[in-house]
């Protein structure tokens, strides 16, 4: 089961990092959402758009579930997923469970 870790201030580690978000007093602060799965923090793989997510159907299903939790109509969910862009908003943050390798995703819903 996926759960969301508490938002924390800090910087994203680089793609493929096995660490959680680091904090720094000199870094620009922003809210982060770090995903967990199998009782542990998931590995951040990088930013993803609709094209990149095609390789990770489990991550797309995870995003569909998150949108459904926000009570979005199915057609709006699919429009939103199709509008995801790696280098612009909205974007997705791709993760992988370190225990079972399930792919997860969180989207910038702004």
Question: Could you characterize what this model shows?
Answer:
With 110 residues, the protein is an alpha+beta fold. It has one domain. The chain contains three helices and eight strands. The chain has helices at residues 50-53, 57-69, 74-83; strands at residues 2-4, 8-9, 31-32, 35-37, 40-41, 43-48, 92-96, 103-107. Strands 1-4-5 form a three-stranded antiparallel sheet, with no helix packed on it. A three-stranded antiparallel sheet has the order 6-7-8. The protein is globular, with a radius of gyration of 14 Å. It starts with a strand and ends with a strand. The model is unreliable at 1-14 and 16-30 (pLDDT under 50).
Q: Mean pLDDT, nearest integer?
A: 79
How large a portion of the residues is in β-strands, by DSSP E? 25-35%
General form: globular
Q: Kindly state the percentage of residues in helix.
A: 10-25%
Number of strands: 8
Q: Which class best fits the helix and strand makeup?
A: alpha+beta
| Low-confidence spans | 1-14, 16-30
Order of helices and strands: EEEEEEHHHEE
**How many structural domains are formed by the residues?**
1
Q: What is the oligomer described by this structure?
A: single chain
Q: What Rg, in angstroms, do the CA atoms define? A: 14 Å
Distance between the termini: 25 Å
User: Helix segment count?
Assistant: 3
Strand order of the largest sheet: 1-4-5
Q: What's the main sheet like?
A: 3 strands, antiparallel
């Amino acid at each position: 089961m996926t759960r969301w870790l508490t938002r924390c201030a800090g910087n994203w580690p680089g793609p493929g990092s096995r660490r959680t978000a680091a904090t720094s007093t000199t870094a620009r602060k922003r809210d982060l959402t770090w995903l967990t799965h199998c009782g542990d923090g998931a590995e951040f793989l990088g930013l993803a758009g609709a094209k990149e997510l095609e390789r990770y159907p489990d991550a797309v299903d995870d995003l569909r579930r998150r949108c459904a939790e926000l009570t979005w109509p199915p057609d709006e969910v699919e429009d939103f997923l199709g509008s995801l862009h790696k280098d612009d908003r909205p974007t997705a943050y791709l993760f992988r469970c370190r225990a079972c390798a399930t792919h997860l995703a969180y989207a910038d819903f702004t």
